[in-house]
Amino acid sequence: MAMAGLYRRILPSPPAIDFASAEGKKLFNEALQNGNMEGFFKLISNFQTQSEPAYCGLASLSMVLNALAIDPGRKWKGPWRWFDESMLDCCEPLEKVKNEGITFGKVACLAHCAGANVEAFRFNQSTIDDFRRYVKACTSSDDCHMITSYHRAAFKQTGSGHFSPIGGYHAEMDMALILDVARFKYPPHWVPLTLLWEAMGTVDESIGHHRGFMLISRLQNAPSLLYTLSCKHESWISTAKYLMDDVPSLLKSEDVNDAEKVLSVVFTSLPTNFTEFIKWVAEVRRQEDGALSKEERGRLSVKEEVLKQVRETGLFKHVKEWMSSANSCCRSMSSLGDKDTLPEIAARVCCQGAGILTGNPGSSYGFCCRETCVKSLKANGDTPVTMVSGTVVTCGSEQGVDMLVPFSQIKSSCCGSDPSSCSGMHPASNDILTALLLSLPPKTWSGIIDEKLSQEICGLVATENLPPLLQEEVLHLRRQLLFLKRCQENKVDDDLGEATK
Questions:
Q1: Are 252 and 265 in contact (CB under 8 A)?
Q2: What is the DSSP string of 22-70?
Q3: Of 70, 246, 348, 449, whose CB has the highest number of CB atoms within 10 Å?
Q4: For 60, how many CA atoms within 13 A lie in the half-sphere containing its CB?
């Protein structure tokens, strides 16, 4: 016998006031007249109902990112680039979020990785007066939005922890408008700001930290273009700790007397799975999308310029020499090199890309890349574009996927030949390790005792000596690294507010 299931809930009122009620409309009109509904219109234009019961954090964030018109830099469906819950998978596997929900820190981390500016405050890191001031600021502007993390019990609602954006503020009544992303359960509603503050003061028992609120706005500069750090796999915790804590200690304790020895100290003890931590950003597309657009060519050109600038640094030359020396024959470097060939990379990326393009993001399970073909395309006098075409098979069906490859020198077509002969054109381990070293905080190298060597290393990693494009790339990676370090929820999560500023 079929079960009818649940159809919404009756909104407990008081304390909440239904947005669509006569009183709710009155509050809206008065708040609008007072200038505290400015952010509402862009949010409501991008309003999203969470697609899974535990996706409130993802729905709230995708709604805010779209309201801020932040370009995700990758396709959603068809030719369109648009944030969707399914695309917010870099910090936590979607299957895990679906089963367990997501924490406050991981939502802030997702916002940061998506290219937004994030200021996150737990309940114990702020005051109600500060919270009220931030609510007023966000609701009187359309270039900054607030997401709150609270417990529903404070409003006599069913359920527990929840995320939703704030859409408006009524100053005289001191009430905030919650744009509840669980529209299947409760409609948008006004609540007393003091009660919302109390609801954020509860503790998320899964991590032992208070809930809170975050302010999300656009970055002044573009986010990472070619490289990114990932906290999707649990290995990021050990890798971030090694880079931020262990490396400075090792450099203090080791007797280092030249640049190669410094690199040896850093690289030899790298966690074996650190390759999951830093990656180069590949762009994938359907083969049936046809000729490359001017926009696609433009993005690829910028990536190629970043790669070129990495390879022109003095640090890159030292990394390249060290990697080719006998000292680099260690397990961690060998495991990195094993996955460095273009066919190996292309097979993995094409499978992941097929998953995204077919609506099954977050995993390449069940996808098999049958073959890859590397080719160089040139049209109408444009700069040649390197592309890897792959045929991905899943459940008996085939999907043609192209991966656009940034390269630092022009190569002839490799189609029909051994693709491994083209391995030098794409971002490889030398480039990735150089970018990673450049992104480490300056204090990393302060423990080097030899003064002359210390000056040499500081000169090699100094961001002020880098071209503007690479400088932006490195500083973004550094912000990511600092953020991830402080986002270890069972360790330094209390520093989250400082990390996101």
A1: no
A2: HHHHHHHHHHHHTT--TTHHHHHHT----SSTT-HHHHHHHHHHHHTT-
A3: 70
A4: 36
Does residue 280 belong to any structural domain of this protein?
A: no
Helix axes 294-311, 429-439, angle to 10 degrees: 80
In Å, the largest CA–CA distance within the chain is 81
Residue 90 located in a structural domain: yes
pLDDT of the residue at 427: 73
Residue 400 banded pLDDT, cuts 50, 70, 90? confident
Q: Which of 264, 302, 283, 243 is nearest to 436 (CA)?
A: 243
d(CA 187, CA 189): 6
Which domain CATH number covers 176? 3.90.70.30
Between CA 288 and CA 46 the distance in angstroms is 29
- Is the Cβ–Cβ distance between 384 and 410 less than 8 Å? yes
Question: Side chain identity at 279, as an amino acid letter?
Answer: K
CB contact at 8 A, 62 and 88: yes
Element (H, E) at 204: strand 203-204
CA–CA distance, 293 with 356 (Å, rounded to integer): 20
Integer CA distances (angstroms), 76 to 69, 219, 304, 358, 361, in order: 14, 22, 24, 10, 10
Helix (H) / strand (E) element for 299: namely helix 294-311
Q: Are 114 and 88 in contact (CB under 8 A)?
A: yes
Establish if 81 belongs to a structural domain. Answer: yes
β-bridge partners, 369? 392
Q: Give the span between the Cα atoms of 244 and 118, in whole angstroms.
A: 21
pLDDT band at residue 349 under the 50/70/90 scheme: low
Q: For residue 24, what are the domain limits?
A: 17-218
Per the listing, tokens 């912000």 go with 479
Number of neighbouring beta carbons within 10 Å of residue 49: 13
Q: How far is CA 232 from CA 147, 186, 228, 277, 430, in A?
A: 22, 31, 12, 8, 23
Q: Token digits for 203?
A: 């503790």
Q: Is residue 322 part of a domain?
A: no
Q: Give the catalytic positions in this structure.
A: 56, 162, 180
Rounded-to-integer distance, Cα 340 and Cα 362, Å: 22
| Token pair 């083209």 in the structure block, residue | 422
Least confident of 18-27, 161-170, 461-470: 461-470
Cis ω for the linkage preceding 14 (within 30 of 0): yes
Question: With pLDDT > 70 as the criterion, what percentage of the chain qualifies?
Answer: 79
* Overall pTM > 0.85: no
Output DSSP code: residue 382.
Answer: P
The rounded distance, in Å, linking the Cα atoms of 486 and 105 is: 9
